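hey
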């Protein structure tokens, strides 16, 4: 989840740089997705789970850099593909953002339930 949230943040920040006339990307990237990335980092620390991407908050150097041993390669590929799609036009970049949000909603719906 740490790298998934970082993926969303990084794509939004990249789109913000490509399309500075659209505040949508910078607002979502710097506020919502950064908060999600930080929250997952804090939960990992709380439960003593190693962070797969400890340099994730070293902006801007960490944008598009995924270091998780198991899935870093996967998130790198997804980042490159989403950014390539978003580079086509502002409309395509907005479609990329919609895709990211839809994927997040599907993840929430399909997340295993924990009984407490």
């Amino acid at each position: 989840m740490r790298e998934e949230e970082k993926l969303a943040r990084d794509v939004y920040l990249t789109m913000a740089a490509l399309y500075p006339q659209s505040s949508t990307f910078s607002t979502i990237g710097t506020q919502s997705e950064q908060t999600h990335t930080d929250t997952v980092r804090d939960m990992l620390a709380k439960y003593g789970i190693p962070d797969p991407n400890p340099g994730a908050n070293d902006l801007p150097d960490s944008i598009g850099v995924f270091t998780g041993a198991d899935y870093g390669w996967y998130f790198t590929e997804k980042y490159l593909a989403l950014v390539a799609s978003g580079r086509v036009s502002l409309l395509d970049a907005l479609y990329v953002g919609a895709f990211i949000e839809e994927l997040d909603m599907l993840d929430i719906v399909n997340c295993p339930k924990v009984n407490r």
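Residues 86 and 93 are 4 Å apart (CA to CA). The longest helix spans residues 23-46.
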